[in-house]
Amino acid sequence: MDVNKKGMWIITLFLAVFALAPAIAGATQAEFYLMDASPSQIVAGETMSLNLTLKNLGTTQATRVGVSLDPNDTAPIDSVGPIKIQIEEAAGGYPSSSFGAVNQAEEITLTFRVMAKANASAGTYNIPVLLEWDEMGLVSGTLDQISRTQTLYAGITILDSPFANLDIENIEPNAFSQGEQGTMTITLLNNGLEDVENIALSWSSAGDAIKPLKGTEKSFISQLQKGAEVEIPFSVIVSQNASAGIHTLTIDLTYYDSNGNRKTASFSPSINILSKTRQEVDVALAPVSVTPREQTTLNLNVFNNDPDIVHGLVLTWSTPDNVLTPLGSKDGVYIEELAPSGEIEIPLDVIANKNATPGVHTLTTDLTYYDSFGNLKSSSYSSVFNVQREPANELSVALSPISLSPGETSEIKFEISNLGPSTVEDIAIVWTAGDNAILPVKKGNKLSLKQLDAGATAEISVNVLAGASYGVYPLTVEVSYYDMFDSKHSNTLVFGAEIGGGADFQVGLQQSTGTSTSFSIGNIGVNPATSVVASVPKQEGYTVSGPSETFLGNLEPGDFSVASFEIIPRGPSQDGLQIEVSYTGTNGARQSVTSVVNMAMPGNRSTFGQNRQNKAAGNGGTNYIQLGLGALATIALLIILGKFIGRRKK
Length: 650
Known about the structure:
The strands form ten sheets. Strands 11, 13, 15, 17, 18 and 19 form a six-stranded mixed beta sheet that branches. A five-stranded mixed beta sheet has the order 2-9-8-4-6, covered by helices on one side. A five-stranded mixed beta sheet has the order 21-28-27-23-25, with no helix packed on it. The protein is flat. The chain folds into six domains: 24-159, Immunoglobulins (Immunoglobulin-like, Sandwich); 166-274, Immunoglobulins (Immunoglobulin-like, Sandwich), CATH 2.60.40.10; 281-387, Sandwich (Immunoglobulin-like); 395-499, Immunoglobulins (Immunoglobulin-like, Sandwich); 505-599, Immunoglobulins (Immunoglobulin-like, Sandwich), CATH 2.60.40; 610-650. By secondary structure, it is mainly beta. 10% of the residues lie in helices and 54% in strands. The longest helix has 42 residues, at 608-649.
């Protein structure tokens, strides 16, 4: 019996161990669930305490538990404090020899300080939560400690910052007819707590049921203050084939808050398209935008909706204030006949008035025709078109100097000014001179700027070598840059660069007789001067009796002329006399040169007043000599005449 009992006990123990083996194996699985993440919403740029509640729903205890929030920094939040929390005590207050244990079916709540990134877009994000722990399990058939990891995800919604927030307040009108052209005004409201800048608004509709006219697809607003609203008009056309009913618009916004963070928003308002009552003959203007002073072709489409043929169609058109002017005489068109369901396109070549106001304008078309019964009918139609702003040069380039000395190295400066409303980037400048008359030294002919803020001016200096040939040469400057919407703009400027300088004058005292004083005026420059005028400006020491200026005409290089004035000195001793020479240079600009002339005659140390007396005395001595010579000649003539008479008497 003892042997049998012992055998039964061994069998029972073996069966118990065999039965418990799966349970022991299953006990090595701890598993965590994220029960709650609160609060579940956070505003972009704000900081909060994020509470994560975790529960061990596995079948064994987890020890040395550590929890990390977004360990790889992939979510749009930043941890203000530690990203990992290591549990230091057993959860639930259970006594345990295991460090930081989370018992089976126990919950733990951990708090992380986080901040939503300021430039985070609104939306819901899954934030990874990494758990690491140790547990007891079978390793190669032996019960031992095993390290495990598990990743859970907390759903967090990031809201747009109320400090910068835009909203679509209204769309007017909210209904259009099939085939209609008109103006749709979108009212944009800044209901945030700060001003926003560089706003771009664009919109579209499914299937282009309603769409903006070319050139009005996108609108830009440089700034919108908090609490303010702005009305943005768009020229639109509704498709003839658009289905009647409610259609959804998609409005996309981008803008920048006060910290320079780019924000986006999208709206989906509804608009109603109504069925159109069709006329027998209809006229529509194809979508078009015009630019002041540019030639454009308008396309008027005429439709015959009558079941019978129509005859003798006369179509005329006009615009208020003559915004459009026809090229030639095509403000009226005659169509002999139009078949049922027929359509004809009439091109009209026009030019927009240079003073046309940017925005939406109306084209009025008047039509008369005869129906199949001979009845005269008339209709008037209104279509809209858009006048675009003339392209503005956001960048201005000035060049100085524009006159260089031949064969010499000089410095020229490019002054670049941003006249636009926003910053421009990646500015590239390439300059070339005709016939390679001006060549760069060291730097090359390509210049660049990374960016230039609105209203700012930058200066770039370049050393250049001017050629030896005199003349005026074209200097071409090609400018390209990108605006805040990453659109590339290009512009070409041409400057006139002069090699050899302008005209120059030398003024000298020629002679002085009585009260009249003559001056030689010589062009010692390298360029001709036209409309040369010499004058004596008001000055101390001298006065002018009579005209104070003399017109000398044109003077080529090396030519000179004489100008005379009645100069009266004041006092016994005077400084030099100022003579001003004004002229028109080769660049068309009026210029002047002032010279100071020493009024003492060459070779005479006396003053100008004494010089006048000496010259008068000199002239008197010359007269006495001339009288003496004349008397001698007369006496000799009388002697010869007497001898001749005496011979005849003999």
